[in-house]
Design brief:
This protein has a domain of 93 residues. 46% of the residues lie in helices and 0% in strands. It contains 10 helices and no strands. It starts with 20 loop residues before the first helix and ends with a helix.
Length: 228
């Protein structure tokens, strides 16, 4: 015997599948429709027909309440004081919610009379709120094999090349490079008129010797010059 009833099931109706389900459903549906519907015995013999008529009637009541709420101020303006109109609107809101709940319940009873079996379903409203997981901590890294390179987390030390004192450039410190370059003695340029290629040393001519000597020597040289 089914005992589950979905949310919104009417309180006066037994669960679907029970012995008194149809009788209690018919009595509740006759209270939903207008009283004159009780005069028709066909509705008692066929509860599905009664549920169908109750469905249309309840939906019409909901739509009528909505339309009356939308036009209440226009229809009652000048006839009722403003505070009375506000009270009428509050009554529309209250009765409209009740009529909407009744229409939903009529639909559930009709579905059950047609043989539908209700099963519990997990809905977002009935499920427990999701638990927020705590923030995940970073996973520890596996120990890495020690290598010659320093770890990235430690400050980098000066490289051995940079720490060693700068060595003097051997080329710049050599005596040859440091000492000033001595001027090489220039070879005596051969005098003009001197014999070349081992033909003997050049002799200075009488005129060149006289030019370098003083006046007295020049005169003596002139006297000693052989006559041509």
């Amino acid at each position: 015997m089914a005992t589950y009833t979905p949310p919104g099931w009417p309180a006066g109706v037994h669960p679907p599948g029970s012995d008194d389900f149809e009788s209690t459903a018919v009595g509740w549906l006759l209270d939903v429709v207008p009283p004159d519907y009780r005069l028709h015995g066909v509705l008692r013999r066929y509860p599905v027909a009664l549920a169908t008529m109750a469905r249309y009637h309840s939906r019409a009541c909901v739509e009528g309440a909505r339309q009356g709420y939308r036009t209440a101020r226009t229809d009652l303006a000048g006839t009722l004081p403003p505070h009375a109109i506000d009270t009428v609107l509050a009554a529309y809101r209250k009765e409209g919610a009740r009529l909407a709940a009744t229409a939903r319940a009529v639909g559930l009873v009709e579905r059950a009379l047609r043989g539908e079996v209700f099963t519990p379903k997990m809905s977002p409203s009935t499920t427990a709120p999701p638990q927020t997981s705590p923030p995940r901590m970073p996973e520890p890294q596996a120990a890495q094999p020690q290598t010659g390179e320093p770890p990235r987390a430690q400050p980098q030390t000066a490289s051995p090349r940079a720490a060693e004192p700068l060595k003097a450039n051997p080329k710049a410190a050599s005596p040859k490079a440091a000492a000033p370059k001595a001027a090489a003695p220039k070879a005596a340029a051969p005098r003009k008129g001197a014999p070349k290629d081992g033909q003997g040393t050049a002799r200075a001519g009488p005129a060149r010797t006289a030019a370098r000597a003083g006046p007295a020597v020049r005169q003596r040289a002139e006297r000693q010059r052989p006559a041509r």
